[in-house]
Specification:
28% of the residues lie in helices and 26% in strands. It has 14 helices and 27 strands. Helix 3 (154-165) packs across helix 11. It is rod-shaped and about 125 Å long. It starts with a strand and ends with a strand.
Length: 491
Amino acid sequence: MLNSFVISKENKRDYNYNYNLHDDLVLNYIHKDLFNLYEIDDKSIICYGYCFDVRDPEKSVSDTLKNLLEESENLLSNIKYLNGHYLLLFRLEGEWQLVTDAVSMTPVYVDSVNRTVTTENDSEGLMTLNGFKILSLNDFTVKDIEVPQNKLKDDRLERIILDLVMNQYKYFKDKRFILNFRRNKMNKALISILHPVLFDNMLNLREDDDITKNLSGSLAREYKMTILNSAEKAEENGRLYTCNVHLMNYNYYMDQRMETSEQESIGSERNDSSDQRNIEYNLQHHLRYRNEKKDHLLFDPFNVPAIQERIYTFSDERNFDPLTRIIRILHPSIDFHDFSTGETLLRKFNQVKKKYDRLSKEMKNQKQNHELLSSAEAKGIEVSENLDGKVMDDGITFYPATELISKDEVFEVTYKKQGNGMILVESYFNNPKNAHRIKVEINGELNDIDEYLEGKFLNVKSDIRLKMRYERDYQTASWQRAGKMTIREII
């Protein structure tokens, strides 16, 4: 595990480095680059891992530690605004104390009997730490960091959370990281927070469905990111940080169905507030991924005590939605991508617009050919509903009612002869090269439409049954006009 360590009475051979906290207590650790120490006079502060103040992030851990120690009188208040993946040790008045990041991304177990702190749980019943507990390394006792009891409105909670995530990207301006990606609202909020620093970083797909692949490709092009493939995942990619969104699924961690007996059981051990109990319960029971081995330092925008102490106090689960506020204010253009379908909104807009234009034309044509259908019915002429035109005293002129013509359509007219004269059938499409694309069948005889270009007289005794078909689909006014024909009775 990248940031494994042990605090014990002696040096441990399995660890590469050590730092003597005092005569009989040693911090043993593996990675030199993750160890940061800052000292002023007789005060010291150590971070193993990384941390930054979300209100005004420094780009280096050492600068963050310097700020914390220079305001040591406000240290307990200021560490509530730290994000990161860390073990924090500080000595203000001769006593070393220890606190972890808000949810303790790497579990920290305390063995008060053997005076040991470690990331490995070798014994049952060991106490676990989180960012709301401070461990004294003198007598191995634990005290709580106060959790405020005032109840804020949900809208105010959303604004607090937004304020505490909006500047977090600044720490990563000179860092390289991997962003674990799934198609959900939490990832959309994570991208919204980090979008100023996504360039030249990596996108690690946690799902392999086609929609995810298409969407990730679009996102990678837009943000100039590299998509990790299966071979690259197995190799060293040189990135220290991995960005996750586990804690942003706040509805999951706020288990409204927690049984009263469980709350009472937790509360009976210590005189905790209800908010403190919620934090304790959820960290222990709903954050199981903490126990996984980690090859990178983790980043989650909600891994901040000042956020975690508020996240469990919302009153209306249906309306409390800080993720939407984060997206709409920090990076609204991310909604250009539809995470459910993988499509861009431009493509969806074009599809909807195309459908709308088609429907509009169909509605327009239906209104236009209503007069033809009514007039033809009054004159006893049978006309299919896909035709428009004009009924005359001695006949009918007709053509397709819409530019959207399908090769599967049949345009039909049955003209009932009124007198004993001849019938003239006339077409107007003067294009012999393409005339074969429109076929006209009259009383069973099939011809190309140009057979009737100059008019053709028919001697029939009763009805004229005309059917017209196109050999291809068309969507132009010119081909609509090409199908114009007239049936006129010569009396």
